UniProtKB/TrEMBL annotation:
InterPro entries: Znf_C2H2_jaz, Znf_C2H2_sf, Znf_C2H2_type. Residues 35-60, 162-191 form the C2H2-type domain. GO terms for cellular component: nucleus. Keywords: Metal-binding, Repeat, Zinc, Zinc-finger. GO terms for molecular function: DNA-binding transcription factor activity, RNA polymerase II-specific; RNA polymerase II transcription regulatory region sequence-specific DNA binding; zinc ion binding. This is Zinc finger protein. It comes from the Eukaryota. It comes from Lachnellula hyalina. The lineage of its organism: Eukaryota, Fungi, Dikarya, Ascomycota, Pezizomycotina.
Length: 243
């Protein structure tokens, strides 16, 4: 249904609403005070009439709460994903973030006072996802829980730099090489999008959540991800698993 705020009337169809706007004296354009829609070049007698039109019309990249038109749906989505419309907080240290993936990145990086890092996140999600809906079954060494840390020594010096034996990338210092080895650069892609036909794989939960937030595969709407995540990351993951 479509609502005319100027007349406080509801219409069963958008076409019925448009006919009302076109024929009602309350919406007739008159003079230099016309308000024009940037998306379809239609004019309206009042700002409220224009707002009602933009809010209801299909294909209009319009933010209803901000009363702002954007040049594309992509720009509108970026705006909707900004801190203007979304605010999340770390459940442990209460640090603010724009979205759910930002909270998870914070935890995976080990920046939270809770002591969480990507390894603890991975372990928790794999225990939650017992049927491997968003995680892949992995072969692990008994007692390691999937957490294996590699450290380089001075023997990694090849005459020009400290070389990673896994990817042959060179670093100017041993510290730089060890930071690289501690990063997820060589982690397994243990996460997968559960949407049928998508098939994308990720090394980090945050990367999977960013994919879902983008709405590119249609698994969940961005607003749904944020809503569920506010009740806990495990609640959001649970919703992804049971869809």
């Amino acid at each position: 249904m479509s609502h005319c705020g100027t007349c406080d009337r509801w219409f069963n169809t958008y076409n019925g609403y448009l006919q009302h706007v076109n024929n009602s004296p309350a919406h007739q354009s008159s003079s230099e005070s016309d308000w024009e829609c940037d998306a379809c070049d239609r004019s309206f007698a009042t700002e409220n009439s224009l707002h009602q039109h933009c809010s209801s019309a299909g294909g209009h990249p319009y933010c209803i709460s901000c009363k702002r038109m954007f040049i594309s749906q992509h720009n509108l989505m970026q705006h909707m994903h900004s801190k203007t419309h979304s605010s999340m907080a770390c459940p442990f240290c209460k640090s603010p973030f724009a979205n759910a993936s930002g909270v998870i990145i914070h935890l995976e990086a080990g920046r939270c006072s809770s002591g969480f890092d990507r390894h603890r996140i991975n372990e928790a999600i794999r225990k939650l996802d017992r049927n491997n809906v968003i995680t892949k079954p992995m072969i692990e060494l008994p007692g390691y829980g999937g957490r294996v840390e590699t450290m380089a020594t001075d023997m990694a010096w090849n005459g020009f730099g400290f070389e990673c034996y896994l990817c042959q990338r060179e670093f100017g210092s041993l510290h730089g090489l060890n930071n690289h080895l501690k990063s997820p650069a060589h982690d397994q892609e243990i996460y997968r999008c559960p949407k049928a036909g998508c098939g994308r794989n990720y090394k980090l939960l945050s990367a999977l959540v960013q994919h879902v937030e983008s709405e590119s595969c249609g698994l969940m709407r961005f607003s749904q991800v944020q809503k569920h995540a506010r009740n806990g990351i495990d609640n959001m993951v649970g919703r992804m698993i049971t869809r």
